[in-house]
Amino acid sequence: MITKDTGNYLFPEGFLWGAATAAYQIEGSSMADGAGASIWDRFSHTPGNMRDGDTGDVACDHYNKWREDIQLMKRLNLQAYRFSVSWSRVMPEGRGAINEKGLAFYDRLVDGLLEAGIEPLCTLYHWDLPAALDDRGGWLNPDIADWFADYGQVLFEKFKGRVKTWGTINEPWVIVDGGYLHGALAPGHRSAFEAMIAGHNILRAHGAAVKRFRQVGEGDIGIVLNIEPKYPASDRPEDEAARRRADAQMNRWFLDPLMGRGYPQELEDVYGEAYRDFPQADFDLIAQPTDWMGLNWYTRSVPENAPDAWPVRARPVKQVQHAHTETGWEVYPPALTDTLVWLHEQTNGLPLMITENGSAWYDPPHAIDGRVHDPMRVEYLKNHLKAAHDAIGKGVDLRGYMAWSLLDNLEWSLGYSKRFGITHVNFQTQERTIKDSGLLYAEVIKSNGGVL
Ligand SMILES: OC[C@@H]1[C@@H](O)[C@H](O)[C@@H](O)c2[nH]c(CCc3ccccc3)c[n+]21
What we know:
By secondary structure, the protein is α/β, with parallel strands linked by helices. Helix content is 39%, strand content 13%.
């Protein structure tokens, strides 16, 4: 094991070290104690949607094992834990009545974290929309902005003084690109017209929740974006144009309006007649000032012009000279530094947090002699922490790092086939085993990066 502190990668005093999860991916018992169904209950139970027919019915059984998992977090020396709340556990219909038993689960979790000296970072929405709201149009219904703010208010008031750092929405781009454009994720729609509308209502809901937070909440609030930097496959003009379209459709579609810049002009080129504009009042609501921004970062991509690749007309060129993870993502840590510097500039120096970073590699289904050796994940973790440190050295106001993920869990439509955990889960026995990457991470936290 790592023993010496090199000191070359010491992080700033007070840097926040944690790990992240999401409700539907770890909790299980999604219909217990009065909870309502979410779109992921429906989507995962619809044949053909999920690898190996996997669902979140059990997942990591965190709904029952949350005390054990807090003890696991302590063994990992975690200072913070990023989790999401299941909207339909708290409000079974998504609006109106509150399910006190559902809210009580999160109340116990938050108190357990605080007692363990672990700071709770709460994400209001990580993809699991109440099915009852989807029946009313979900993200396509403009009323969802108020429904979301009302839901946020329940949590802001319940956890006032205990949860100090809030994230509104995890990854608008994935919700829209996966759920409404390509259909790979719930609710499984395929429409560019819907994508524009859903994306806009997600941003409006974020703004409405921020406004409501300013009225009833306490602490800091921000949004969590996935940013995947785009590097042109060549210096040919058509590849640079493809890069711009890909960057606009994935990275700037949501960032620009949040920063008060409206939609990037390339979006109209991408969506054509499906592109539409919206009233200025919407953009004023969307650009509510926030206190921080979360960055979910995994990889970069290198697009080339591809006229047949709907709708962006760009296709990533595989960078065979670098390793790729089990999800097919290139391992290229320097791009994390580039992204952090770019985001720092794009947000005029807003405090940033890496709210997700991690990698899926093949791990065995069970531990051997109480160990799970995951050298590739160890390497990925070390090199991306160094890249994050390099960004701090370039002036980026980076406040923390949340490893994705605390546990092996349900990788959405890929089921349990992709393991991102720094802790191994044996899904036959629910036994947890800290992987070598988790043992390293615990050392990194204890030395504030000194062992890197
Ligand atoms: O795929 C690993 C994790 C998911 O398990 C998280 O729930 C989600 O927040 C998340 N976002 C990303 C990066 C964006 C992305 C997601 C899915 C597919 C391609 C890119 C990676 N991840």
